[in-house]
Amino acid sequence: MISSKFDWKQVDQAPSEPFLELAKKEDLDNLAAGILYERGIDDQAKLHDFLSADLSQLHDPYLLHDMDKAVERIRSAIEAGQQILIYGDYDADGMTSSSIMQEALEMLGAEYQVYLPNRFTDGYGPNLSVYKYFIEQQETSLIVTVDNGVAGHEAIAYAQEQGIDVVVTDHHSLPDNLPDAYAIVHPEHPEGDYPFKYLAGCGVAFKLASALLEGIPNELLDLVAIGTIADMVSLTGENRILVKYGLQMLAQTERIGLQELMQVADIDPSDLNEETVGFKIAPMLNALGRLDDPNPAVELLTGFDDQEAGEIAHMIQEKNEERKQIVQDIYDQALTMIDPGKPAQVLAKEGWHPGVLGIVAGRILESLSQPVILLNIEDGRAKGSARSVEAVNIFAALNPHRDIFDAFGGHAGAAGMTLPVENLEKLSDALCSYILDNGLDKAGKNSLTIDEELHLPDLSLETIKSLEKLSPFGMDNKKPVFLLKDFQVLQSRTMGQNGAHLKLKLAQDGAEFDLVAFSQGHLAQEFAQASGLELAVTLSVSKWNGNTSLQLMLVDARVQGVQLIDIRAKSAQLPKG
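Now predict its structure.
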């Protein structure tokens, strides 16, 4: 049966005629103009700022808290020939942040080392044992953290006690008490007043690099684009500018490692956009940190050895394929453990890989529209990740029950935790009780904003060109989603390995377009026969055999009224392509 994954919310705010005239002068069609207007870009000044998005609009890095102290200390370390440790993180943001800082220090002639902590042996953030090793064995005199540090009290206190200054650059949520570091560079620092609060870790590192180099290092923007998109921060304001120009740099990157990575991933640099980064490049980099030692990623991003870059790229590709299989295996196992009588699922099992549990929890949440906690059991402890629907603040639900955890942290939509196995039932009871006591069990699905209703005869490649002026798309500037109804399904056929995906040919008032629906191959017959079918779609460009055309991509589907399917046709062989 065709069942919607989301609660559709249609925007209904028509732009004014004067605004449409302004948009027309900027070569925007009415569809693109209406979307901008709905998103608060509703006058000439806002429209100009949004569409220009120029590097000259970047803020002065010295507006960031402690930037002057950070620059002064790093420069003095370089002048004295002191060994600097760049301490990063094991995800794509941390990898790119570390690479940005490495290249900035390299340009300044610094003595440096880079270390990305291992998710399984070091954990996230400053690690006391690692700090001790570099201070005692590697003669480190200054530590610069990137994409971490604001929660690293113990390790940073140790370093400072040893006379080793720590410069923290971070963007994660600030705890009530900050570590006693030499400098803390953070866009949300309570004593700072930085105009844009939503930089990724790589964005903060880029700001420090800009201050150190006394200018905007354009050659680092490709790394900033990857890290910013991967970390799913707000793609507005300064981030929009950084990603816009970073994608241009990435499309013509001279980084051997990125060239190799795009080759093994079958990415055409000329077609590269934020979706390429978000769905291909970033997951590959993240796979390394999820399953293994993340440090080779820095060599991939910064190195000059063709052979080594190729070997690392192929290794990362293999890790990503391994990660996909692990995710699928855990997903299949977890589905058999679901209790349909509960408003939330707490699923725990021995042998589940802890590096991918958040991904799997997100996939199960999408299918159930319920909060999901997935935990690996090892040595009497359960450790894992939670993902939650919009209506249920998972942090608020579980924070009052810290007594059942060894460790717990997170925010409204996601959390991480470790607890004794004997407390698993208490965890399930606490979460389910919170949902039931607050009447959230009927809250339903996450919402999906529908920007406009489509009329197929109005679409062309020019429509795409106009919408592309609104990109790059991401958090707080979502790719537009459109409603399509009152159309005919001329053809429904499966495609891909084992017929996993679906391709439809749709017609409306004489216009015909293809639609691709990933992971919907099993519903080919339902889509072919359903009446009252409504689709939520995005627009994309398809290039095949030298031809370029507009195609639709399915986001969600629903059927108005009763679904009547001829089950006799279910056994018929559907065309596959």
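The radius of gyration is 25 Å.
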